[in-house]
């Protein structure tokens, strides 16, 4: 399945923000003294950080400083994006080349942070520089430090592009930035990652309207993030897509991201239904084999009933999920219709077997022996 993730942008001009006084000089020096042989994997880097620094604030500083110091923005390949590349592959390539675009910086930061025991996520969105809203998507990070969500942009924090060249210039403004401040330049596609109780809309971002509007419904982002984390990946995609759409589809970047999430959720849900359907068919055929063997070796009546209840439950569930999917799908209608036909036919067959078992269980031992006739297998699992 193709997966395309938002990818590229960089700070093309010096932001109109002052450098934050660096109170982390000692930590920075310590992380730069990491042994060379430990610089080639996020596991080794994380282990060094955990063994050297004790509190979350020091650890996340070490993660940030390692990332911004050791990766150079890859100007030559900023548009050469492999949409099928996994996060693991992005990280491996970046560690080997020491180059990358925004998503490479973000993935490296995110993985090291999580491996040192800090809850971190990659944020996808778009940006504004000098009053101009960029037309290229961007990726940055967030992490919860001492109970508070902070924002990190290791790409913008690593340097600037000037005259077509990347100049390393570490900027501490993008380290542990307050969400209420960075929202003026960084707009997440999903407003949950604004970390604001009164999130701004995409239109407000375009208009430069960042005034807190308490007439809006209160948004408990902490509770919503915890809820989001507890969801399955498919439900995470769906809930995120709902928030993206709710906040206004104001540009092609938002549209593309929304389409991706909806489409991936739909494909994964369809595959989940196919898997459930296949399991139901296989269990039904196993039951038919057992019936053709006159329910031998012997099992209890309770076990026998379970043998037909299980495929019936799975096939019924697959039908319910398929009906819900058909209400929202626009791109997979033919596949859904074809699968629905198979599910309905199989459910008819499983119902026949279910009724046979009920009748069988209602008879005496002698009566049961007279019931058996050969039954053909049903259905072929879907690839």
Shape: elongated
* Record field, number of beta strands: 9
DSSP helical segment count: 13
Tell me about the largest β-sheet: 5 strands, antiparallel
Give the low-confidence spans: 1-9, 11-20
- Structural class determined from secondary elements: alpha+beta
Structure description:
There is one protein chain. The chain has helices at residues 25-32, 42-52, 56-70, 87-97, 102-115, 179-182, 202-207, 221-230, 233-246, 252-292, 301-328, 333-361, 365-369; strands at 72-73, 99-100, 120-129, 132-133, 138-145, 148-152, 159-162, 165-168, 186-188. The chain has 383 residues and is α+β, with helices and mostly antiparallel strands. Strands 3, 4, 5, 6 and 9 form a 5-stranded antiparallel sheet that branches. The protein is elongated, with a radius of gyration of 28 Å. The relative contact order is 0.09. A hairpin with a 2-residue loop joins β3 (120-129) and β4 (132-133).
Helix/strand layout:
Elements: H1 25-32, H2 42-52, H3 56-70, E1 72-73, H4 87-97, E2 99-100, H5 102-115, E3 120-129, E4 132-133, E5 138-145, E6 148-152, E7 159-162, E8 165-168, H6 179-182, E9 186-188, H7 202-207, H8 221-230, H9 233-246, H10 252-292, H11 301-328, H12 333-361, H13 365-369
Parallel strand pairs: 1-2
Antiparallel strand pairs: 3-4, 3-5, 3-9, 5-6, 7-8
In short, what is this structure?
The chain is α+β, with helices and mostly antiparallel strands and 383 residues long. The chain contains 13 helices and nine strands. Helices cover 51% and strands 10% of the residues.
């Amino acid at each position: 399945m193709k997966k395309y993730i938002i990818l590229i942008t960089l700070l093309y001009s010096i932001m109109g923000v002052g450098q934050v006084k660096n109170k982390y000089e000692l930590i920075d020096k310590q992380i730069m003294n990491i042994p060379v042989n430990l610089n080639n994997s996020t596991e080794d880097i994380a282990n060094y950080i955990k063994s050297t620094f004790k509190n979350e604030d020091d650890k996340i500083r070490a993660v940030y400083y390692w990332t911004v110091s050791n990766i150079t923005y890859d100007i030559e390949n900023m548009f050469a994006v492999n949409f099928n590349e996994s996060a693991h592959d992005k990280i491996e390539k970046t560690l080997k080349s020491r180059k990358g675009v925004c998503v490479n910086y973000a993935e490296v930061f995110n993985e090291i942070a999580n491996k040192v025991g800090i809850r971190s996520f990659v944020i996808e969105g778009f940006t504004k520089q000098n009053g101009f809203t960029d037309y290229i998507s961007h990726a940055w990070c967030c992490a919860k430090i001492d109970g508070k969500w902070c924002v990190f942009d290791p790409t913008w924090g690593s340097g600037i592009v000037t005259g077509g060249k990347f100049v390393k210039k570490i900027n501490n403004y993008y380290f542990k930035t307050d969400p209420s401040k960075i929202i003026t330049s960084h707009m997440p596609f999903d407003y949950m990652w604004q970390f604001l109780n009164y999130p701004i809309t995409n239109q407000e971002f375009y208009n430069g309207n960042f005034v807190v509007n308490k007439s809006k419904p209160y948004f408990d982002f902490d509770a919503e993030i915890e809820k989001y984390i507890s969801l399955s990946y498919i439900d995470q995609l769906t809930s995120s897509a709902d928030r993206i759409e709710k906040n206004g589809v104001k540009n092609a970047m938002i549209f593309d991201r929304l389409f991706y999430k909806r489409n991936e959720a739909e494909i994964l849900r369809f595959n989940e239904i196919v898997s459930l359907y296949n399991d139901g068919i296989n269990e039904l055929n196993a039951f038919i084999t057992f019936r053709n063997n006159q329910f031998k070796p012997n099992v209890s009546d309770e076990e026998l009933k379970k043998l037909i209840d299980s495929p019936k439950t799975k096939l019924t569930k697959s039908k319910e999920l398929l009906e819900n999917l058909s209400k929202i799908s626009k791109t997979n209608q033919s596949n859904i219709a074809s699968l629905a036909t198979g599910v309905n036919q199989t459910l008819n067959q499983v119902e026949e077997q279910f009724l046979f078992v009920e009748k069988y269980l209602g008879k005496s031992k002698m009566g049961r022996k007279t019931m058996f006739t050969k039954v053909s297998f049903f259905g072929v699992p879907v690839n």
